[in-house]
Amino acid sequence: MRIPRTVKLGNHEFKVIYKKTIRHPGKNGEECYGLCDYDSHVIYLQRGMHPSKKSEVFFHECLHAIDELFDLRLGEKKVNLLAVTVMAWIKNNRIDFGVINAKRKPRRNRAHTKKRRSKRKRN
Fold it and tell me: Potential cystine with 74: which of 16, 47, 67, 115 (Cβ 3.0-4.6 Å)?
């Protein structure tokens, strides 16, 4: 999963910033892999994580943002469970969301294509 520099959640845009060390303010400054700062609309991710761990932590922090924005009251345990479960579902089923957002190439007019082919054959 390619982590974007900014991510839009609801009507809010969150900036993604990488830091060497992240300390959780609510857990006595305990070191953590990621943190969502709702007030400044920033998601912090620890530098140097394995790509699969980074994707999981990014998704986890996005879930925290969604939880806060929509007052879902999921809590840490449910956010953890959802993040791990949904990321496993995506990975195990090889789901590629890039396909959903990809722009479709316009179809060429078949008659036009046939005409070009027949011109090539004559030369």
Answer: 67
